[in-house]
Amino acid sequence: MRGRWSTWIEGSVLVAEVILLAFFSIPFWTRNVDAAPPPEHEATVLRVIAEQFAWHVHSPGADGVFGRTDLTLVNPDNPLGLDRTEAVGRDDLVVNGRLFRNSSVERCPTHPYS
């Protein structure tokens, strides 16, 4: 058998949760999560190509321009078919089977889970 006090306490907790959700959580969410992405000139642009049990990450290099890819150039040493004879493709960085730990290309882990 329930008493009156438990009903009042449960009702008070419900009202407090609604107030917290409506006046604090939802405005915080809309202000921080729905923010616009950074402008393209400030963003790090990478191509990530998925393969079964592997990821291939293609960075455009220092010039910021991706090199040309061609399906006829795909082989075990060049899984993306990157044309290294082209000037803009010479500085491109391709990492096979690993993901970057952060946006810095120099800090690439030796193991994907390290």
Set down the secondary structure blueprint.
Layout: H1 4-32, E1 47-51, E2 54-59, E3 93-96
Percentage of residues in DSSP E strands = 5-15%
Question: Stretches where pLDDT falls below 50 for ≥5 residues?
Answer: 102-114
Which strand order spans the largest sheet, edge to edge or round the barrel?
A: 1-2-3
Distance between the termini: 56 Å
Percent of residues in helices comes to: 25-40%
- SSE order, one letter for each helix or strand: HEEE
On the 0-100 scale, what is the average pLDDT? 79
Radius of gyration: 25 Å
Q: Number of helix segments?
A: 1
Provide a compact summary of the structure.
The protein is of the alpha+beta class. Helices cover 25% and strands 13% of the residues. The chain has two domains: 1-35; 47-96, no CATH class.
